[in-house]
């Protein structure tokens, strides 16, 4: 299960925008999806510049989901970008593992296999974290 989001490259992406709850919005939970797929685009909505595929377990562990979330907004940073704040630099560092160049992904078998591995790992990790949370109760 993949949650697909798209926005212009320079924008931050809200993760709490799910219908329901107070003011018709509620936070995403670990069980809502296996991976977040973010398409970064230029002003032309048909031109995809970047693709990030981030396991929900990664977002949960980094406190971008669930009740413990740090912030409702979450920015993606391209590998060549130069973020100014420490928090943004840290985000760019861990996000690098989940970045794909869409043009390369179409033609590179290694990138396609890496893409598949991340999606497979996303499902397994989400299931493990969910079971671990159930053990607490």
Structure in words:
This protein has 137 residues and is of the alpha+beta class. It is built from 4 helices and 6 strands. It has helices at 56-61, 86-95, 102-107, 109-136, and strands at residues 2-8, 13-14, 35-41, 48-55, 73-74, 99-100. The strands form 2 sheets. The protein has a 4-stranded mixed sheet with strand order 1-3-4-6. The longest helix has 28 residues, at 109-136. The chain is globular and about 40 Å long. The two termini are 25 Å apart.
Which stretches are low in confidence, meaning pLDDT under 50 for 5 or more residues running? none
Helix content: 25-40%
The string of secondary-structure elements, in order, is EEEEHEHEHH
**Number of helical stretches of at least 4 residues:** 4
What is the overall silhouette? Answer: globular
Summarize this entry quickly.
The chain is α+β, with helices and mostly antiparallel strands and 137 residues long. It contains four helices and six strands; from the N terminus they run ββββαβαβαα.
Short descriptors:
137 residues; alpha+beta; four-stranded mixed beta sheet; 6 strands; 20% strand
Blueprint of the fold:
Layout: E1 2-8, E2 13-14, E3 35-41, E4 48-55, H1 56-61, E5 73-74, H2 86-95, E6 99-100, H3 102-107, H4 109-136
Parallel strand pairs: 1-3
Antiparallel strand pairs: 2-5, 3-4, 4-6
């Amino acid at each position: 299960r993949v949650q697909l989001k798209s926005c212009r490259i320079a924008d931050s992406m809200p993760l709490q925008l799910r219908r329901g709850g107070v003011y018709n919005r509620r936070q995403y939970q670990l069980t809502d999806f296996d991976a977040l797929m973010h398409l970064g685009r230029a002003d032309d909505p048909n031109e995809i510049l970047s693709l990030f595929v981030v396991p929900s377990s990664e977002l949960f562990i980094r406190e971008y989901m669930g009740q413990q979330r740090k912030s409702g907004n979450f920015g993606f940073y391209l590998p060549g970008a130069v973020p100014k704040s420490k928090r943004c630099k840290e985000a760019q560092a861990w996000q690098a593992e989940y970045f794909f160049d869409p043009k390369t992904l179409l033609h590179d078998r290694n990138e396609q296999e890496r893409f598949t591995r991340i999606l497979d790992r996303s499902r397994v990790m989400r299931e493990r974290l969910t079971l671990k949370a159930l053990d607490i109760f």
